[in-house]
Amino acid sequence: MATIIKREGKKGVSYKIQVAVKDVGLGKMVTKSTTWKPQKGMSPKETETACAVFADNFEKQVIQSFKTAEEDKGNINITFAVLSKKWLERSGKIYGKGYVGSAQQCLSMVLPMIGGYKVKDITASVVQSVFDRIDRMKKHIERYYPKKDIKDVLSKNGITFVWLRKETELNEASISLVFNGKHVGKKFATMFADVCGMEIKKLFDVEIYDEPYSKTTLKRFKLAIYNVLSYAVRLCLVDKNYASSNFVDMGRIERKSIKCMDEDELNKFYAALCEVDNIQWRVSVKTVLMTGMRRGELCGLNWDDIDFENGKIHIQRSYSECSHAGMILKEPKTTTSKRVISIPELLLEELKEYKKWYDRQRELWGDRWVESGSVFIQRHGERIHPANIKMWVNKTCQKAKIPHYSVHSLRHTNITLQIMAGVPISTVSGRAGHSKTSTTTDVYAYYIQSSDVSAAKTINDIFSREIE
Predict the structure, then answer these.
(1) pLDDT tens by residue, 15-61
(2) Contact 172, 190 (CB under 8 A)
(3) Is 129 in a helix, a strand, or coil?
(4) Which tens digits make up the pLDDT trace of 399-413?
(5) Which of its termini does the chain have fewer beta carbons within 10 Å around, N or C?
(6) What average pLDDT score do residues 256-262 get?
(7) Are 362 and 336 within 8 A, CB to CB?
């Protein structure tokens, strides 16, 4: 049982919580401790109860942290569903919320097919049967399209784009989709209707249908089963992982060709971008284009990450949406995605100018300012939503009168520019945050070959010169 020690100091009353637990590895008892402080205004009874609850939870955490997998090794009747839960708990201690949330979502899709099996009874034929069922799965789609007269309906009720953007918490990029007649999801359509105080059916037409999952998503579902069974092998519950490609057909994914701008499109895009008056729009899109960072990495960028003196950016987090937890700050895509890259002088000067604008905004908003530390922000200083970057790239393409390109296409464009310029692949891979150089060579093989041909021509020209 946890020991609670009351302490009184200059900063008020606090409680030291101690838990003694046996460390099997060391062969002796060890003590873990933490401190708890009551909230202001708590009565003595409330303080006693809250402290006891906190101490109990802390004790459970400590005991759990010292548990080993021994309790599972002898459980020959453990089901896949129970083992998958234990695997998720273990993964939560190693990986970030984003990974665990994604894995949890994948498992929720496959557990109805395999969760009830005892792990020891799962054979290659069982797994292949489940994989075949996964391949036939379809997802339910609900898209909400703004009605043709939505602007008139909103106008009659005194609702304008400017009012929605300034006086509500709705995302500006999603509001733009509605006003431009583009479809949105059920969640946003519901929020939009609530803010407007109107029925959703008066503002939107809904389109409902089923469509197959992408091959990439289907493989993620299968990998969730593979990972749980790999955990079973490590616990010696089974001898083999029958979800591996040695025993079953995982299905092949054809790598899509990348989409990036050609020289003419890039010139038009950049020229249009330089004419944009909105400094946040201009600088954020230039940052993606000139650094090749991912959209989530851009939105996760803090001012502390920019070294103005040495002209470097530290990329160490990503801000993106997880279906289970909404918008979250998390670790980048891979361990090597945490990186430090040098930035062009041109972009550095833009960022310095933008910092001055940022500081003026903070002064103007005063007490209403939210100190998020984020480089790119919403109106009151909150971290910017990735949808805004997508909207600005789309609008820039329209201004430049070139085909549509995604935010990720700017990253592809940046990387191909480096390759074509003869930058070493190891450097390109490092700046891109790829886990290994083979990722770069696989994805950008065509451009590497083109660069290689150019290199051969250069060498040919050198040795073809007449010796004077």
Answers:
(1) 899 988 877 666 678 888 899 888 888 888 889 888 999 998 888 88
(2) no
(3) helix
(4) 999 999 999 999 999
(5) C
(6) 84
(7) no
CA dist 330 and 99 (Å) reads: 9
Write the secondary structure of the chain as one string of H (helix), E (strand) and C (coil): CCEEEEEEECCEEEEEEEEEEEECCCCEEEEEEEEECCCCCCCHHHHHHHHHHHHHHHHHHHHHHCCCCHHHHCCCCCEHHHHHHHHHHHHHHHCCHHHHHHHHHHHHHHHHHHCCCEHHHCCHHHHHHHHHHHHCCEEEEEEEEECCCHHHHHHHCCCCHHHHHHHCCCCHHHHHHHHCCCCECHHHHHHHHHHHCCCHHHHEEEEEEEEECCHHHHHHHHHHHHHHHHHHHHCCCCCCCCCCCCCCCCCCCCCCCCCCCCHHHHHHHHHHHHCCCCHHHHHHHHHHHHHCCCHHHHHCCEHHHEECCCCEEEECCEEEEECCCEEEEECCCCHHHCEEEECCHHHHHHHHHHHHHHHHHHHHHHHHCCCCCECCECCCCCECCHHHHHHHHHHHHHHHCCCCCCHHHHHHHHHHHHHHCCCCHHHHHHHHCCCCHHHHHHHCHHHHHHHHHHHHHHHHHHHHCCCC
Residue 468 reports pLDDT greater than 50 = no
Angle at 140 between CA 136 and CA 142, to 5 degrees: 155
Q: Which two tokens stand for residue 395?
A: 């609008």
Q: What is the pLDDT of residues 176-220, one digit of tens each?
A: 999 999 999 999 999 999 999 999 999 999 999 999 999 889 999
Instruction: Look up tokens 């020991």; give the residue.
Output: 3
pLDDT reading at 447 higher than 90: no
Distance (Å) of CA 16 to CA 9, 19, 34, 50, 258 = 12, 10, 6, 13, 57
d(CA 278, CA 142): 34
